[in-house]
Specification:
Elements (H helix, E strand, L loop, with lengths): L7 H12 L1 H6 L14 H15 L4 H13 L3 H12 L3 H9 L6 H12 L9 H17 L5 H8 L2 H8 L3 H16 L4 H16 L4 H4 L19
Helix pairs in contact: 1-8, 4-8, 5-7, 7-11, 8-9, 8-11, 11-12
Protein name: DUF1266 domain-containing protein
Pfam families: DUF1266
Length: 232
């Protein structure tokens, strides 16, 4: 596939990789090789097993169902509901309400995370977490043969301007991604965020990373496929 960053399809592919770069960093893939997976039959079978275990994906229909959920709802919907509720309360009222929730529950931890990030994130909140995984699933689905590489790029293309409009740049996108993973994991402690923050910091500081080679506000040509409004 043409990876020329100035070519339209090459630029879309670069963005697809960049949006999900944190996941590739976590999995120890080589950024110098565009985070390519080993394409041996054994490797592909291993990835298919993990896809089934972690996402319930065994075919194109399953893949599209997961992508639709990420596009239309994702974890941002739950985050935004809590954020909307807490934003109507004073800081003292927020604390009092959260402390009334049983502390052993995920619900308590989720409210803690929303309170910690609600004023640090734009209106998009943790959409970066959903957008990043959408790009990741699309690309990995192509790698495993559930969809074509062309279809993968077609699916990802509309979410690029959504990300650009939702966040001011890679730093804010990274913060949204970090908050989203903490919300999903229901772990509000600083220690739980430290490792993930390290991956994001590396992408921000490494001059060779895609995050530093892709200008955030460069427009792509007119998108096709799924309406971007469904991903907002």
């Amino acid at each position: 596939m043409n990876r020329d960053v100035h070519n339209a399809s090459g630029l879309t592919e670069r963005w697809c990789i960049a949006l999900s770069a944190v996941l590739y960093e976590m999995n120890g893939l080589d950024p110098g090789n565009d985070y390519e997976w080993e394409s041996t039959p054994e490797s592909i079978e291993m990835h298919k097993q993990s896809f089934q275990r972690d996402w319930g994906i065994e075919n194109e229909e399953d893949l599209r169902r997961n992508l639709q959920w990420l596009a239309e709802e994702g974890h941002r919907e739950s985050f935004n509901k809590i954020r909307s509720f807490l934003s109507a309360l004073s800081d003292a009222e927020q604390t009092k309400y959260i402390e009334s929730i049983p502390k052993t529950t995920n619900r308590y931890r989720e409210h803690q995370i929303v309170k910690a990030y609600m004023n640090r994130l734009p209106a998009a909140g943790i959409a970066a977490w959903d957008l990043g995984r959408f790009a990741y699933l699309s690309r990995k689905g192509a790698f495993m043969g559930y969809i074509s590489q062309e279809k993968s790029l077609e699916l990802v293309k509309p979410i690029i301007p959504v990300a650009q409009q939702a966040y001011s740049g890679w730093r804010e996108y990274g913060t949204g991604y970090l908050a989203g993973r903490q919300f999903w994991w229901a772990q509000p402690t600083a220690a739980s965020a430290q490792e993930m923050a390290g991956y994001i910091r590396n992408l921000l500081l490494n001059a060779d990373s895609l995050w530093n080679r892709l200008e955030w506000d460069v427009p792509l040509e007119e998108t096709t496929g799924q309406p971007a409004s469904q991903l907002a």
